[in-house]
Fold each of these.
Amino acid sequence: MRVLTYNLLAYGQADGARRAEVVRAELARLRPDVVALQEVTRADGFDQAVDLLGDEVVIVDHPGADDGGVGACLASRWPVGAVHTLDLHLVPDAVGLPWAAAVAAEVDGPLGPVLVVHHKPNWQLDAEHVREAQAVATARFVQELTAGRPELPVVLIGDFDAGPEAASIRFLTGRQSLAGIGVRYEDAWAAVHPGEPGDTFSPRNPLVTAGEMALERGRRIDHVMVRSGPHGPALDVADCRLVLDEPVGGVWASDHFGVLADLVRPPHPPGTWA
């Protein structure tokens, strides 16, 4: 199962048409099965998700978008079953992002059913307390959706706007509890590249330094994670890498780099002996 998360940078910014050409060609080459897109434009007369991925995908939108139709969506080349949505405007400070939400879709392909959850919390640098509440809410949301189905693999994916050292990510990866609960999701990048920074929002990208965060120092804020049970995750990470992280013909595709992960069934389920 090949999954990708990618923040496109809104089409109306920084010569979106030229950037889209680069993204379209790379997505055709990579052929991800499931894609989480942020800052994607889906408006009357222009559907960027279909433009980039083709009309053979099933698209599940996040609730909410700005006045120009910019929001987030989950796209799957596999059949999609039940879809559930959690609004993440949970606390008074959860403002400024119309599509803050977690959208869970059960996709069914060669690995069998997999619950894919596109998590999009608030972005502001000084809003980690908001992201903590949103991470806890999404974790509880997943627990409710999978009650009675502990064997169902869960993939958590998106632009989390927080790096590995942040409390929200520490909570999700099982390194601390929040609100009296604990969970553990395997960080696909860390599984393949332990100790490597893997920044996805980096000042070496001129679209970052030209944008609203001109003093950005570099962070790994886009993530692919697999839920773990007591003995480990239900899916193994065969590969994880950054994509669209270099200019093509002088064009940087976005101010974010994408994260692509290949997930497979483990040799035997965690919690059992081979």
Note: The mean pLDDT is 97.
Amino acid sequence: MRNFYRIGSALAAALFLFAAAGIATAQDFPNKTVRIIVPYPPGGSAEAQARLLAQKLSETWGQPVIVESKPGAGTTIGAAYVASSPPDGYTLYLAGTTSHLPSAILFRKSIKYDALKSFAGVSLVASSPFILAVNPSVLPANSVKEYIDLAKAKPNTITYASSGNGAGPHLAGVLLQMLTGIKLVHVPFKGSAPATVALLGGQVQSQMADVSVLPQLEGGKLRALAVTSATRSPLIPNLPTIAESGVPGYDVTYLSAILAPAGTPKAIVDQINAAINKALTSPDVRQRFNAQGFEPTGSTPEALDQLLASEMVKYEKVIKESGMKID
């Protein structure tokens, strides 16, 4: 019995020292460069969002915060890199829920991480819809109804570009087909920027685009038909939703979040969370996010973990019922 108490006392002391070490580490954090990994090529809206956040975090911490792009394989390359990084808060991941979760489902047999268990939620960052856009010179659609009618008249002929296999825009196109019965041709690219270039050049007829396409829409080079979110975006309120355009129940909303590798001490997660939420309340951050088409959307780590779990259930259902596969 005496040995039992000795073991228990030793274990309690070890746990106390471990917790104390975590607090001390958090107090010193950060004392070197912090990296935000973006799973898309340079030039897209995600990178712009990450760079603005990095600037604010650097100002708060007095340490460099840099953005690194690690694109490819439906965002799984960037996710795998972060999941295998040391859980010390110095490697963070800008994840889009509509890419991170579906990609983990679709690439499940080839990846070595779990979209939920391999990461610690830190904070939501922003929300925005995708935009169904067409090149009017190659596809004469002025509305979602006309787009659907054209697709029904000529199945498997209308092309739509996305930022990659398994990414949010790919999912948005699959859901549109599932709910309307149309058949489109998916053309994946390594990011939103090259997909938009192809649309502008007429190599594809339409795109499930992110908000980085807004300048081309405003310039009249491309035509927006609708947003993919359940409600209209306050930033482009005149653009209808796909749901209100004759496809009830349609909703694919992009939510970006900062994740850390699983096992990152909670004290460090909380410290990063506080810095992110402070940045998101800054008037200049709100103005610049809004200009890029994003609504700043902070959260607690716990709320983010709950959201990711519920979104995973939703996308599992969509992928299973639609028969969505990697092209």
Note: DSSP finds eleven helices and eleven strands in the chain.
Amino acid sequence: MAAGRYRGAAGNGAGSVRFRVEGSTVRGFSATVTMLCPGVTAGQLSTQAGVAAIARVRLAPDGSFVAATTAGRETSIRVHGRLAGSRLTGGRVELSVGTCTGSGTFRARRG
């Protein structure tokens, strides 16, 4: 696990992910997530971009991490992944804001 700033792509490359590693902690995690939202009429859906942000996540000795948090009454966030060297693998983020939900994979590199 290499300390420093990490940046990468979320989803199909349309979003971004950023965080930094300090010792055994991930700090300032932020990822863009595309969410589906139900429309006013039945069967109608719209998309909305959201940002999943978590201030601090502890790293396990093998470099893996998992975190779940809420932000306000209607927002929940879950993220997990594994740092190996200067790369993040197996990253997944889930975001729920009110009736809108979305999830996606992400990858990142130090630098």
Note: The domain at 4-110 is CATH 2.40.128 (Lipocalin).
Amino acid sequence: MPSKNIIKTYSENGYYHVYNRGVEKRTIFTCSQDNSVFLGYVKEYLSPKDTDTLQNALGNPESSAFEKAEAIKLLRMNNFNTEIDLLAYCLMPNHFHFLIKQNNSWAMEKFMRSLGTRYVQYFNKHLSGRVGSLFQDTYKAVMVHSEEQLLHLTRYIHRNPFIKGVSLKESPQPSSLKNYLGEIHQEWVKPEELLSQFSKTGFNSYSSFVEDSALEEFSIQLIANLSIDYV
């Protein structure tokens, strides 16, 4: 029997909770550099590709060999800027979470395959001599069916790094929470649709929503059928 949520329903304009973990629950993000590289790949795939600038660099006789090689690499690289909206993310030492919307039926599959392959190549090179699989299996994904589930999934994802006694804002684990709190702006993260349901301050703010421990049991019950199988 296949692992939970490996078999996916691919739907145009569908919302999905996407996640994966390391094989044998091993650490897949060993240091801040690993986090930065992984998110750097996400940024490259989801940011608009400046084709004109890259073509100009390629055709410019003053461009160095390195600059031309980089331009060729970026021109050939897959880009999912118009196909994938990343609504929320969190990286933990041995797993990660995404909340995404795909704008055509197979965008998620292509995006996750490109990201996973590229990161495994980096990771194995980074840990010199390592070979083989890094992730336990193919990524898991489950479709989200209601706006309420979407909201509580962002809460679940952003609270994933929570350690008792440590503020969510102080967590060392990378996440999209600060985008939702207005503290940073990563153009490849799209919180606007969900933030429109909240006020900027007060009891109806997103900050209050994500920090309210009284919502924990309700959140768990609401997204029970979307929950991951290893936390």
Note: The longest strand covers residues 84-92.
